[in-house]
Amino acid sequence: MILLTGATGFIGSRVLQGLSKKPVQVRCLVRKPVTSHNPDITYLTGDVLDPDSIIKATTGVDTVYYFIHMMGNQPAGEQRKFDELDRLAINNMVGACRENGVKRIIHLTGMRNPNEKLSHHLESRKEVEDIIRNSGIDHTIFRASIIIGRGGAAFDILDTVVRKFALIPIFQWQNTRVQPIYIDDVIRYLVDCLDKKETLNKCYDIGCPEVLTYKELIEQYAKELGLKRTFIRIPGSWHRVPAMILGKLSPADPNVVYWLIESLHNNMICEPNDLNKIFGFEPIGIKESIRKI
Question: pLDDT tens for residues 115-162?
């Protein structure tokens, strides 16, 4: 039995589609009741902030897919507390997994440079990862930077900037380097690793073959859309004003927009790994990723 958290979200819903093609039983943890027409997929209403409901959810489970992030789930004035909620949620999950003998946790988190001061968002992601790694439970962890796919907050912000602004302001983050990855490649890693025991207790950075600056990424996206865009350099590193504007224009939650903008100064470059050998494929390049959207 697999427990899938975040089953209705950007990543979880796509992982569910992939798992539905495998001969496995999947239990989806959701906040609101959902009806399933697939006998191999069931839905359980619960909350990761409630230890009792998580103990119930993990009963009889072998593997947990953990896709819980609390950014944007706080009331006004308490947005900075998402790290406290992330900490509580993962500790509840780890405790329940220990109690019920769950064998493995599969997790997707944010890529980071260990030599940089991390943003509030990435520091919280790192803490969640560390709790999983130190839990004593087998795990497989993937780290990604920008995921190219509609419904992902980072991509939706990029899409909004390029489509709605002929004149694009760029700040100190223009030269920050990233390795984006296409959403289908992310899902392929997450689903296929279930059967690859060599990925147990391993952490992998995942990204396309190219390394781009944020400015280059914006330029490439605009070019693929056939849009001519002009950049204007603005000194400093502004967060709140762009977050307010993009929070109104993009589908992403305004609080999430703010924390993602704060993270733009963090480089996200893949460390070398043997994923190509293990999985038998290389993620597609940025141009092809954009064309598939």
Answer: 899 999 999 999 999 999 999 999 999 999 999 999 999 999 999 999
pLDDT for residue 79? 56
Q: Which CATH architecture has domain 2-292?
A: 3-Layer(aba) Sandwich (3.40)
Determine contact, residues 113/261, Cβ cutoff 8 Å: no
The residue written with tokens 């147990």 in the block is 200
Do β-strands 181-182 and 147-148 pair in parallel, antiparallel, or remain unpaired?
Answer: parallel
**Measured distance CA(10)–CA(149) in Å, rounded:** 9
Structure tokens at 236: 């400093």
pLDDT digits (tens, 9 = 90+) for 11-38: 999 999 999 999 999 999 998 888 888 9
144's tokens = 């990604």
Cα–Cα distance, 168 to 217 (Å, whole number): 13
**DSSP string spanning 201-248?**
TEEEEE--S--EEHHHHHHHHHHHHT---EEEE-SS---HHHHHHHHH
pLDDT of residue 261: 84
In order, the DSSP letters of the chain are -EEESSTTSTTHHHHHHHHTTSS--EEEEESS------TTEEEEE--TT-HHHHHHHHTT-SEEEE----TT-S-TT-GGGHHHHHHHHHHHHHHHHHHHT--EEEEEEE---TTSPPPHHHHHHHHHHHHHHTSSSEEEEEEES-EESTT-HHHHHHHHHHHH-SEEEE-GGGG-EE--EEHHHHHHHHHHGGG-GGGTTEEEEE--S--EEHHHHHHHHHHHHT---EEEE-SS---HHHHHHHHHHSSS-HHHHHHHHHGGGS-B-PPP--HHHHHS--PPPHHHHHHH-
